[in-house]
Amino acid sequence: MISRIVPLFLATVLSLAARSQQSSTGAALPSPEEFVNSIDTTVIPKDVKHYYLVVGTDSCRFLKYNYDNWIQYHLKEPLSINILNELSEKVYLSRYPYLWQQPKLNKAVCVTRKEADSLLWKTKNVVFSFSLPQFTDDGQYAVIDLNFVCGQRCGQGTTYVFRLTTSGDWKLVGTYVNWAS
Questions:
Q1: How wide is the angle at C-alpha 61 spanned by C-alphas 57 and 63, nearest 5°?
Q2: So which residues are the signal peptide here (predicted)?
C-alpha cells in the first residue's frame, strides 16, 4: 500500500511545485503554461493558429560558460552577470521532468514523442519542444529553450531570455541559436 502511495505523492508534489511557483523573495511567478502563452507569439510565427508541442519538457542549454559570447553577440540590452548567473543556476537545478498541461495552453496541441514522429514523417508538420521556463528570484527575467523539428535534417534549437516589462509583458532581450539543420 505504501509503495503505491509514495510515487503518487511525489508526482503530486512535483506537479504542484511547477504550477504554483513562488520565488524565494515572495514574487509570484507565472505557471509554465502562463509563461508559454505569453511568449508564444514572440517565438512562433504569429499566423500559426496552433502548434504541436511534445508533452514532456526538454532540457535548457543556458549554461554558465558562454557568457562572453552571450554579452557580445546575443543580448539586445545589457544584463548583469548576476542575472545571467542566477538564470544559469536555476537551469542547472531544474532537471526534474514536467508534463505540459494541455487545457492551460492556448495554441499548443500536446503530443507524445511517438505521435510527434508520426506527424513529422507522414504529414510533414513542425513539432516543438520547450524547456521548463526558469525565473530570477525577483520574477523579472526568464530563460527558456525552444526547439522545433520539421524533418530528418530540418530543425533548430534556440535559447531565449526575457525581461518582464512594467506593463506586465515579457520582452525578448536575448536569443542564442544552439543548433540548426
A1: 135
A2: 1-17
pLDDT in tens, 44-64: 988 889 999 999 999 999 987
Q: Residue 18 has which C-alpha cell?
A: 511547477
CA Rg value for the chain: 17
Stated pTM of the model: 0.83
DSSP character string of 79-117: --HHHHHHHHHHHHH--S--B--GGG-SSEEEE-HHHHH
Pairing status of strand 127-130 against strand 141-151: antiparallel
CA–CA–CA angle 78, 81, 84 (5° rounding): 90
CA atoms within a 13 Å half-sphere pointing along the CA-CB vector of 151:
5
Neighbour count for residue 170 (Cβ, 10 Å)? 19
Residue 149, strand partner residues: 127, 155
Nearest-angstrom CA–CA distance, 128 and 55: 10
**Phi, psi angles (nearest 5°) of residue 159:** -100, 135
Predicted confidence (pLDDT) at residue 175 exceeds the cutoff of 50:
yes
Query: Is residue 132 left, alpha or beta, with left meaning phi > 0 and alpha meaning psi from -120 to 50?
Result: beta
pLDDT tens-place string over residues 95-154: 888 999 999 999 999 999 999 988 887 777 899 999 999 999 999 999 999 999 988 889
